[in-house]
Every structure is written in structure tokens, then in C-alpha cells.
Input
Amino acid sequence: MESLKQFGVMPLFDPEEGTTVIEPPGAGAGYWVGGCSANFGPEGGMFHLYYRTRKPISEGRGGLCSVVRSADGVNFETVWCSTKKHFNSESIESASLLKSLEGKFRLYVSYVNQSSRKWDIALLEGDSPWGLRSGTAAGCVERGGR
Output
């Protein structure tokens, strides 16, 4: 079976030459978009990108996460999104979006568990990135105390 992972040396990146593809929800300190996980599906010719938006702590931290797709890697459309309420959390953090060997899309999302006050990882799965909408967050990794 051929590996789905590929390794290589990335060229140096100059942020001044970069292109912003997702704008932060506000201007100033504490507003940003990040926690990205990106992949390209050669069979469909589409880029898929996971990101979360972040606001200052006083305005709620990481409250929205999204998956977007693009044919050119610059112009993206939202195909799935969720809020920290879906995870019963005060903040969503980083995540990884990948495609399994079985062809399912999996999104592993790090969030604050309100019960334990520790970081957990939820797994959402679907036949497509937009199919994650119908999935429910199921605890995948729970840290400490159990």
C-alpha cells in the first residue's frame, strides 16, 4: 500500500510575500486566525483547511472553528463550522483534519473540558468535510484524573 504521507523540505517563507486567505474577526492584539491544518486531495483537486478564530480572552478566546475548501488554495468557501458551545467548552484550540485510509474525513479538535477543567480531544468523522456537520463530538483523548 502506498503511504499517504509525503516529506520534503519547505522553502523559507517571507510573511510579507504571503497572502491572507482568512481574515481575523477584529483588529488589534488578541484577534487572529490560526491553529491550521491543511491538506490537498489530488482525486478531487481541492484544498481543505481547518482554522479557528481567536479573540482576546476578555471577549471569549477561541470560539469558532471552521473547515474551508478551495480549488486554488487562495479563495476559500466554508463547508463546515462549529462553536465552543458544541463542545461545551470555554475555548476551542488547535485541531488536525485528515483523511483516513478508509476514505473518511476525521477532525481531531482540542478543547477545554468544562467538567474536568483539562484539555480534551474530540473526534468528529464524516464522509466529507461538510459531512462533519452531522457528526457529534465524541471524547477521544481525556487528560488526567480518570
About this structure: The radius of gyration is 16 Å.
